[in-house]
Known about the structure:
GO terms for molecular function: calcium ion binding. Keywords: Calcium. This is EF-hand domain-containing protein. Residues 114-149 form the EF-hand domain. InterPro entries: EF-hand-dom_pair, EF_Hand_1_Ca_BS, EF_hand_dom. The chain is of the alpha+beta class. The chain folds into 2 domains: 6-80, no CATH class; 112-184, Recoverin, domain 1 (Orthogonal Bundle). 44% of the residues lie in helices and 10% in strands. The chain is built from 9 helices and 6 strands, in the order E-E-E-H-E-H-H-H-H-H-E-H-H-E-H. It has helices at 31-34, 49-56, 69-79, 84-89, 94-109, 119-126, 136-146, 153-170, 180-184; strands spanning 6-11, 14-15, 21-22, 38-41, 133-135, 177-179. The strands form 2 sheets. Strands 1, 2, 3 and 4 form a 4-stranded antiparallel beta sheet that branches. A two-stranded antiparallel sheet has the order 5-6. Strand 1 and strand 2 (14-15) form a beta hairpin. Helix 7 (136-146) packs across helix 8 (153-170). The two termini are 35 Å apart. 20% of the residues are buried. The protein binds calcium ion. Calcium ion (CA) is lined by residues 127-129, 131, 133-135, 138.
Amino acid sequence: MHKEACSVFLKNSKRICPHFLHYRSELHIPASVAILTSICQVPSIDEDPEGWFEAVDLSVRAGEGTLNQREVLEVLKAQLPLDAQRLEEASDGLLACIRRDFYRDVEREARIPDVRENKEEWFDYWDYDKSGTLEQEEIVRALIKTFRLSDDRSRIEQMRSVVSAVWGIFDPNNSGGIDKDEFVARDGLAGKGGGS
Ligand SMILES: [Ca+2]
């Protein structure tokens, strides 16, 4: 599921059930249900920690404003490229498991490759789940970091919409992700102005 953005159901701006679903802008909600509910895309925790907390917290409506282990576990399984079974079974605790998987990211942040100098390295860097393709959310994440938009929620959403709107141009075979050949191709995402 983590390859696509995920969302939660809301009613009167509060989360109403523990389920996560794939987010698609064209997602169809029957009119009868739409009156009562809406869908909120769960933001990335490093781009918008407050928005993430609000989207994940099932207990906000009770005024608690706290996350329990189950809420955190479920959103991590939905949002991140984690081994869900290993996460459930982690004998040394949730935090230790996450730390093992993601601590390396802190070191990675310090050395983001320059796309103009090495497209392939840039591609590998942002292929977060090592799937061999860049998915929309991976591109959005890369652009947000590159343009330092992490604190600006409206511009993050704007960026997400722009990437979504032009996605078909860069993913001509509609595979859901851009592979490395497509990426470095002359007319691919990195091709224009890439200097090669
Ligand atoms: Ca990927």
